[in-house]
Amino acid sequence: MAFEYGAQKLNIRNPFRFEGLVRSIRGLLLLVIGVYLLIQIQPLLGTDKPRAWMSLVIGGLFVVGGLKALGGGLFQVMRFFVGRAAPASLAKNVAREAVNEREPTLYNAKMLHNMLMSKSNPTFVEPLGWFARAVHSVFPNLIVTPWPIRNVAQNLAMKLTKSLVAIAAFLVATLVVTMVFSGTEGADVGSTVISLILQASLLIYLGLLWVKLGNPLSRSNMTSLGNTTSKGLALVIIGSIALPILTAQGWIAFWDNMHPSSRQDLAIMMPLFEPVFRTGTLLTLTLFCALATAAIATVLIKARIRLVPIATSSSEMNNSWRFDLHPRQIFTTLRDLVLMQKRQQELPNRVYLDSNDTGDANRENEQFNGDMLVEIQPLVEEKEEPQSLRWARAGGTVAAQVILFIGALLLWFGADRIMDHVYALDQIQATRIDVAQAFNLLFIPAGNTAALLLASLLLLGFGRTLARICHLFWAEIFFKSNLFDLHCEGTVMRATHYRGADRHSASSEQDVFSFDATYFALATEAVSSTFAVSGQHNLEQPRYLLSLAPCDGFINSVMGDLEEQFRRRNEEIQNEKQADREQRLDYIRQEQEARRTGDMTAQGLVSPERRASLEADVVTSQDREKIARWEGDAGDN
Known about the structure:
Structural class: alpha+beta
Keywords: Membrane, Transmembrane, Transmembrane helix
Shape: elongated
Number of helices: 18
Region (Disordered): 590-637
Low-confidence stretches: 501-506, 624-637
Strand content: 5-15%
Transmembrane segments: 21-41, 53-75, 164-183, 189-211, 232-255, 275-301, 391-415, 435-462
Order of helices and strands: HHHHHHHHHHHEHEEEHHEEEHHHH
């Protein structure tokens, strides 16, 4: 869909201003911190070169991330360019003046006709799979939302389900480990080690599960409905039972092969080794962020479901016509006169179907039929959003940017603390200290730093996920338009009309057509939506039909104007016939007057001598038979 500039605007607002403003603030703060870290390189080079290089790396990351966030945010705040061809068509536009459209379409002309005829909406397709059906059972009206929202809802529901199953599996695994080590030698040490392994596995699984969220506005999410399967749940359940047992058996075999002195040393070190890990804190952070993300997304989805009243109705009209016109006038008049007057903002109508065979209907009693499906230019419609949707969307956007900023700060602090551990390691190597002091000086602080870095990655992932979810609800723009569908079929009648003919001069002939037709018209007021993106292709996305409402006034206006055009043209033809009849009557009166007076020339009529000359040129029946024999026609008989 090419950008078409026009002085008359479509009044489509920029939906990303608030989101871009908050994003720009985060980018500016990151940029300031990054420049500060880069400025600190010069004084650190003389005193602490390793920390200077670390400042260079972290400062460079902050500058790059800050510029990206600041540029993207300012891009969203700036003017939202919308061409005259926006939004995308519902189906392929076959109008003569149609632009070169590149955006995908979810419908075709046949689907749109069936929607109007059957009072149904194929946009709301049945969910696939038992899990998707379960989600739609919990949210029964989720089926009437656009596909990107349905895909996000199913994805979040699957993430929640997998998280609950993983937590339940962790509890089951802990119970299994306790049962396996019950009464065995080294049970305390083995139970601690396996518990730490299971906690780390749960943390990694939940982190990867929640921070991994594809772009909801990707082309695949817009043009297809996701199919959520239960394979992941099955693997989690199987792993929760099999993995602890296998790990426990492996530890028992490892413990049996250890030397008694090594067992004693390991038992002594385990209480010191356990505080190194912060899996419990990280798990708490992960669960809190996951619940917050799910709660905000749930509020947004439920508020969006109630935003558009769903209807699947259309207006109908059928009747019969009989006019002294060629049937081609039905579709040309409808397209180029009647519907052209219904245009919005002086934009061409979207023609999805214009098929008829009236151009070849030139013989007596020849049948014709045709179809036309037109959409009037859609106009943007501002929906009255509920307060829950506004506050959840704005609050979620701010929370996402704050979480991203905190995650970046934790990454800075964690990276800065790495150099302290390097210096502590040098101190331990230079002095002889016992194991407990080494753990207190190095390993426990290093564990805290590792937990800090993991927490930063988790926050960055959760912030990115929450920002993408909120962006989806900023991007939706609603439109209202009228769809008109006409099917007409009938029979052509042809007659020869003699104009200016009389008994003395040659006849002039004119073929006059009339049609006897039956039509069936459908019309609806459609509410549709599309998802805008920031960039050059802002509205080149598929459009979803959400609601179809009857529009009796529109269809009455269209058909009334069409019949009025037919009557006007029919009256013109009848007036021409009446004028010709009056001309013939006037000629007869002149001829009678000339005969009465005997002055044919004075009356502008043909003299008797001229009439005899014309009659002499007429071919007789006998001569016509001779000519036919000469041409070979008689031989065929």
